[in-house]
Specification:
The chain is built from 4 helices and 8 strands, in the order E-H-E-E-E-H-E-H-E-E-E-H. The chain is an alpha/beta fold. The chain folds into 2 domains: 63 residues, 2,3-Dihydroxybiphenyl 1,2-Dioxygenase, domain 1 (Roll), CATH 3.10.180.10; 69 residues, 2,3-Dihydroxybiphenyl 1,2-Dioxygenase, domain 1 (Roll). The mean pLDDT is 93.
Length: 140
């Protein structure tokens, strides 16, 4: 059975600025699926991608209006991280690249999370779950 892949499609106002923002966080782009209308951001090689689509191009895939992310949330994207330090480092990189922090970090004991808003207001949640604390949390 082939490995499933996910391509999350997100509308962006300025493709070049969005690419620069995510490149500053360490993400790369698949040139095969990147042009003037779209950029294929590789989140996890071979399985997870974000398609950053210029708003006018995004509109060709739907009859619905694009969400105004300054007023509402259309999706909350959550990516796992390998440590608390990675969570904090990615948030710091996002802020340095022009993103914002919508709330303080959350520490649930078994899970640590924090996040950022990208240049287009999309919410990216980052989470680290320590296997030792998950086992302890499940036993309670």
């Amino acid at each position: 059975m082939a490995t499933k892949q996910i391509f999350v499609n997100l509308p962006v106002k300025n493709l070049e600025k969005s690419k620069a923002f995510f490149a500053a966080l360490g993400y790369t782009f698949n040139a095969q699926f990147t042009d003037a209308n779209a950029a294929c951001m590789v989140i996890n090689e071979g399985s997870i991608h974000a398609m950053l689509l210029v708003e006018d191009f995004f509109k060709t895939f739907t009859t619905k209006s694009i969400t105004d992310t300054s007023k509402s949330t259309e999706v909350l994207l959550c990516l796992s991280c390998e440590s608390r330090a990675e969570v904090d480092a990615l948030v710091a990189k996002a802020v340095a690249a022009g993103g914002t922090v919508p709330r303080e970090p959350q520490d649930y004991g078994f899970m640590y999370s924090h996040g950022f808003q990208d240049l287009d207001g999309h919410l990216w949640e980052l989470a680290y779950m320590d296997p030792a604390t998950i086992a302890t949390h499940q036993a309670q």
